[in-house]
Amino acid sequence: MTKNRGLVKRYRWLFEALVSTVILFIGLFLYRQLGRVLYVQAMLAWSSIWRVIIIYLLILLIWRLNEVLGKMPN
């Protein structure tokens, strides 16, 4: 039980990133279903959405690294 807690604590940022990414995909899916977007425009939008997701994950990774490195003693 304590091992699982330590694992969750250690990789909490990864779980947060995965959950936020899943929420982002659900939001994009709902937007695509509810929006009045043409098929070609949706296909073009997906390539730019991948770029946005990659940039978002890079920013999240850099932010977490800064947080972790800032807590380390000199």
Number of helices: 3
- Low-confidence blocks of residues: none
Q: Characterize the biggest β-sheet.
A: none
Strand content: under 5%
Please report the total strand number as a whole number: 0
List the helices and strands in order: HHH
Quote the average pLDDT: 73
Query: First CA to last CA: what distance?
Result: 33 Å
Q: What level of helicity do the residues show?
A: over 70%
> Per the principal axes of the C-alpha atoms, what is the gross shape?
elongated
Specify the structural class. Answer: mainly alpha
The number of distinct structural domains comes to 1
What is the fold's blueprint, element by element?
Elements lengths: L1 H9 L1 H23 L4 H33 L3
Helix pairs in contact: 2-3
Q: What can you see in these coordinates?
A:
The chain contains three helices and no strands. It has 74 residues and is an all-alpha fold. The mean pLDDT is 73. 88% of the residues lie in helices and 0% in strands. It is elongated and about 50 Å long. It has one domain. The protein starts with a helix and ends with a helix. Helix 2 packs antiparallel against helix 3.
Give a nutshell description of this structure.
The protein has 74 residues and is mostly helical. The chain has helices spanning 2-10, 12-34, 39-71.
Which keywords apply here?
single chain; 74 residues; mainly alpha; 3 helices; 88% helix; 0% strand; elongated
